[in-house]
Each structure stands twice: as structure tokens, then as C-alpha cells.
Specification:
The chain has 8 helices and 11 strands. With 219 residues, the chain is α/β, with parallel strands linked by helices. The longest helix has 13 residues.
Length: 219
């Protein structure tokens, strides 16, 4: 899942991003609405966590622009205004969900995960294939009943590969879906993540390298 956090309070924005990354999400951050409009025009996000009260371009304008552009981006609008009328107005703009500050981080994660499951195409909460079970809400993985101690990045890579359902996933696609925009496409980050993931999955091997194309799960 790729998420864009749009929040002008930098400490809060960075804290949210860091927390979501621990749940194997690729997270980009914007501290204003103008930046957000630029990012959604470049990257394919699953969810946008959007502060309604931004100092430059308002969250309402950003939300309206995202909806008008079409696509499958889900918008979680966040604001300090907790009146029913404010929530109704925000949802009326096209937001998919609404969260009032202050909020429990666990609730934010649950709402982002729920919206992510509604993104293109709908992602089931549990993926299972070839003895591997990936429980997305609980952020747990196992193979043949054996717990797999995966890092957030390994979890994200495995999720992308399993979701591909036996088709080849390119390195570029893995970078887009499992890393944030700061990832260097010329590094060996993907190869290293796949290597450690293979080791933790054990034998028989489940991830095939397809020369010149990428990786395939369940070969």
C-alpha cells in the first residue's frame, strides 16, 4: 500500500509517516496542499491522509482535485473540527472517511488499512498461497504454521508478490509499491530485500528470479 500524508504540522506528519511505515506501507509526506496536488499527479497512491486545515491550498481543494481526477485513491480527511456538520461537509466533498484530532494512532492505522482494502483492486485482509499466510491487519506472516519474523519492508515485498498471483513483478513496480519516493532506483535495495525474504521463507524456494523481468512468487 502506498500512502500520502498531507499535514502542515511537521512533527505530526513525520510521526504518522514513521508509524505507518512500521506496518509495511510506503509513505510520502507533504506539508502543504500545493505539494500534495503535485504528488498525486505523479504517483499512484492507494490512500491519502489529508489534513483539512492546510495553510496554502486547503484540504477541501485538495480533496476535490483528487476526486475530480478520477482513479481509485481513497481519502481519509483529518481535522480538529469535530462537529457533525464538519464531518458531513468533509464527506460531502468526496472524502471516504473522516477522523477527528486528537486521535489514537491505532485507529488511524485501522482506517488506512480499511481504505487500502477498498483501493484498486480490493485487497483481502488475509492472503494465502503455497503454505504462506499473510495476515494484513495483524501484520503477521507464516509458512506451514511457522511464524515468519519479517521486517516491514520484507512484509511489503511479500505482499506485492503474493498479490500478483503468480505473475512477474518488475523491480520498478516493487520500488513503486513498497518503497517511498526517496528510494534510489539504482540501488540493490530490492535484491537485498528479496534475498533476506527468501532466506526467511525457507525451502523449497517460493520466489523465482525472472532474468530481465523481475520476480515471481510461487514458481
Amino acid at each position: 500500500m502506498r500512502v500520502l500524508v498531507v499535514e502542515d504540522e511537521r512533527l505530526l506528519a513525520d510521526s504518522i509517516a514513521e508509524g505507518l511505515r512500521k506496518f509495511a506501507m510506503a509513505v510520502d509526506v507533504c506539508y502543504g496542499g500545493e505539494c500534495a496536488l503535485e504528488r498525486v499527479g505523479v504517483h499512484e497512491y492507494d490512500v491519502v491522509v489529508l489534513d483539512r486545515d492546510l495553510p496554502d491550498v486547503s484540504g477541501d481543494e485538495v480533496c476535490a482535485a483528487v476526486i475530480a481526477a478520477g482513479g481509485e485513491i481513497r481519502v481519509l480527511m483529518v481535522t480538529a473540527a469535530g462537529d457533525v456538520s464538519d464531518r458531513v461537509e468533509g464527506l460531502g466533498l468526496g472524502a471516504d472517511d473522516y477522523l477527528t484530532k486528537p486521535f489514537a494512532f491505532s485507529e488511524l492505522v485501522a482506517r488506512v488499512q480499511a481504505l487500502g482494502r477498498r483501493a484498486r483492486p480490493a485487497l483481502p485482509p488475509v492472503l494465502a498461497a503455497h503454505g504462506v499466510v499473510l495476515d494484513l491487519p495483524r501484520h503477521q506472516a507464516s509458512r506451514d504454521g511457522r511464524f515468519l519474523p519479517l521486517s516491514p519492508k520484507e512484509f511489503a515485498v511479500l505482499r506485492v508478490l503474493m498479490r500478483a498471483d503468480g505473475t512477474v513483478v518488475s523491480v520498478e513496480s516493487l520500488l513503486e509499491k513498497a518503497w517511498d519516493e526517496h528510494a534510489d532506483p539504482f540501488t540493490n535495495a530490492v535484491r537485498m530485500a528479496v534475498m533476506t525474504l527468501r532466506r526467511k521463507l525457507g525451502d523449497p524456494p517460493l520466489i523465482e528470479t525472472v532474468p530481465g523481468a523481475g520476480y515471481r512468487f510461487g514458481a
